[in-house]
């Protein structure tokens, strides 16, 4: 049992290195096995194929990231509407953003795999899925504010653009800034910009 765990661990480490260097489409199972010093038969004992191997690296971190995002959206949807806070860094939205960005850096390599190395895999449209989820949240949230301030609902295109802006900030950060402390520092003006933009959509 211990040997099996060690073999699987070596395969995952070798696969991560191969995927990071070559990307999903160009990665070679033969090369992964060679680096891990195991046979291809050993690989197929643990994983069905290359897709299953890639999923074994990224699924758990993505599930936790998704849950953190949904927890924030559900909390935001269930609390009374709020205006732009005077002290942004103490606000719920800013603290949630920091929690998510720190989590992403905790799984830095796995985020790189999904965001920059997943072409040809089932994860290459992952950002689009996050945008779609965020767009549904913004649709419901903006409709609440429009009702409160008695104005027509925002156009779908506008809500989609807002959702893209939201997700793109996190994607850009993790793919361009390697240092988590710098990323957390940069998040303040970005979240301030997003928050001001959101509330600017309503005739307060």
Q: What's the topology here?
A:
Blueprint: H1 2-26, H2 29-36, H3 40-46, H4 50-78, H5 92-106, H6 108-116, H7 126-148, H8 156-176, H9 180-199
Helix pairs in contact: 1-2, 1-4, 1-6, 4-5, 4-6, 4-7, 5-9, 7-8, 8-9
Description:
This protein is elongated. The protein contains nine helices and no strands. The mean pLDDT is 93. It is mainly α.
Derived from helix and strand composition plus strand pairing, the structural class reads mainly alpha
- The tally of strands reads 0
Q: Count helical runs.
A: 9
N to C succession of SSEs = HHHHHHHHH
The residue ranges in which pLDDT falls below 50 over 5 or more consecutive positions are none
- Main beta sheet strand tally, sense and closure: none
Q: What is the share of helical residues?
A: over 70%
Average pLDDT across residues?
93
Name the overall outline. Answer: elongated
Distance between the termini: 63 Å
Radius of gyration: 20 Å
What percent strand?
under 5%
Outline of this structure?
The chain has helices at 2-26, 29-36, 40-46, 50-78, 92-106, 108-116, 126-148, 156-176, 180-199.
Note the main attributes of this structure.
204 residues, mainly alpha, 77% helix
